[in-house]
Amino acid sequence: NAGVTQTPKFQVLKTGQSMTLQCAQDMNHNSMYWYRQDPGMGLRLIYYSASEGTTDKGEVPNGYNVSRLNKREFSLRLESAAPSQTSVYFCASSAYHEQYFGPGTRLTVT
Amino acid sequence: QQPVQSPQAVILREGEDAVINCSSSKALYSVHWYRQKHGEAPVFLMILLKGGEQKGHDKISASFNEKKQQSSLYLTASQLSYSGTYFCGTELGSHYGQNFVFGPGTRLSVLP
């Protein structure tokens, strides 16, 4: 039982490049989330998915797209990376209220 | 509508007590508490639903004052393992996720 897994763990991009962050959970949770964490800002919700086939914007969705591929997987795509997107990205899942977080992806955009 | 947390940081000696507060300007449905150790993912501690019930496990407990839209996290007889950043998260309704917002965090350091 791996819980929530994220790939990659680290990534460096140049401005304008694109990439997809992968997230998968094996707890049969309906809800999944993507957050970004910047120093002193806490965690900010980018997108969430209440169930397979549905996605909704969170607090800071601009510059990102998501795909809920199936119940297990929820990916986050940066189409044209910008330095302002340098951050640590966390994926989380929940059955009801308690969220389980993945280990995070540290992304640097130069 | 990010909740406000206080204090921003606190330093304790092992065995001392601490209180971390979380307040919102909006009517809240629930308050969540998470702890994040440096370089790790946040870990869920507890949730308090509308109703003001106090919860806790071990020496960490929390309360929720609906009238004031405030929650407090109580850490008693702190241990070195309590060090980390504590985040409250608030939601405005029962449709989870749509209105969920984390506070900026309170950094707790427990010294021997």
Describe this structure in words.
The complex is a heterodimer of chains A (110) and B (112). Chain A has 110 residues and is mainly beta. Chain A has strands at residues 4-7, 10-13, 19-25, 31-38, 42-49, 56-57, 64-68, 74-78, 87-94, 99-101, 105-109. In chain A, strands 2, 4, 5, 6, 9, 10 and 11 form a seven-stranded mixed beta sheet that branches. In chain A, strands 1-3-8-7 form a four-stranded antiparallel beta sheet, with no helix packed on it. The N and C termini of chain A lie far apart (36 Å). Helix content of chain B is 0%, strand content 53%. In chain B, the strands form two sheets. In chain B, strands 2, 4, 5, 9, 10 and 11 form a six-stranded mixed beta sheet that branches. A five-stranded antiparallel beta sheet of chain B has the order 1-3-8-7-6, with no helix packed on it. Chain A binds chain B through residues 31, 33, 35, 40-45, 48, 50, 56, 58-59, 90, 94, 96-104, and chain B through 2, 30, 32, 34, 40-44, 47, 87, 95-98, 100-105.
Task: Give a short synopsis of this structure.
Chain A has 110 residues and is mainly beta. Chain A has strands spanning 4-7, 10-13, 19-25, 31-38, 42-49, 56-57, 64-68, 74-78, 87-94, 99-101, 105-109.
List keywords for this structure.
heterodimer, A: 110 residues, mainly beta, 7-stranded mixed sheet, 54% strand, B: 112 residues, 6-stranded mixed sheet, globular
| Helix/strand structural class of chain A | mainly beta
Count of β-strands of chain B? 11
Roughly what fraction of the amino acids of chain B lie in strands?
A: over 45%
Give the mean pLDDT of chain B. Answer: 89
Main pleated-sheet profile of chain B: 6 strands, mixed
Globular, elongated, flat, extended or rod-shaped: what is the shape of chain B?
globular
Percent range of helical residues of chain A = under 10%
Broad structural category of chain B: mainly beta
Give the largest interface pair and sizes.
Answer: A-B, 25 and 21 residues
User: SSE string of chain B, helix = H, strand = E?
Assistant: EEEEEEEEEEE
